[in-house]
Write a structure and sequence with these properties.
With 144 residues, the protein is mainly α. It is built from six helices and no strands. It has one domain.
Length: 144
């Protein structure tokens, strides 16, 4: 083999101690132009936080619920009590309105049949007025 073949890296070339070329260094893309690599402990903390994100989130939610549990409980109790009161007031209003309609129908019947003397009408009118008072007494309660 000739020197020319050896210099071209031919088939019979042997390494005679010539240095092997090394790749050129790659410039760092770290912020601030620093060529320092990120320390391994910071990287391990970041990896740990990524891996445990769901656990941290669940713990955060549970702690918020624990801190505000009394407020949440009171809000729910108030909402349930308001619903119960609405039902109670609706039933009471329906009963009072039913009584009013009945008293009005009785008076209309007495007038239609000509039973309009003072002795017959006085108790009916008093009862009718009482039923109006019951409905009007809680008018704004029923509206709420």
């Amino acid at each position: 083999m000739t020197n020319e073949e050896a210099s071209r890296g031919g088939a019979g070339a042997k390494d005679v101690g010539s240095p092997v070329p090394r790749p050129a260094p790659v410039p760092s893309s770290a912020p601030g132009g620093s060529s320092q690599p990120t320390p391994s402990w910071i990287k391990s903390i970041g990896d740990s936080l990524k891996a445990q994100a769901a656990t941290w989130f669940a713990g955060f939610v549970i702690s918020i619920l624990a801190v505000f549990s009394s407020t949440i409980t009171e809000y729910i109790k108030t909402a349930l009590n308001n619903a119960d009161l609405r039902t109670k007031y609706y039933e009471e209003f329906a009963t009072n309105l039913s009584e009013f309609v009945f008293d009005a129908e009785v008076i209309v019947e007495f007038i239609d049949k000509g039973w309009t003397d003072a002795k017959a009408m006085t108790p009916l009118v008093k009862k009718y007025n009482k039923s109006i008072d019951n409905v009007r007494k809680k008018e704004y309660v029923y509206l709420s």
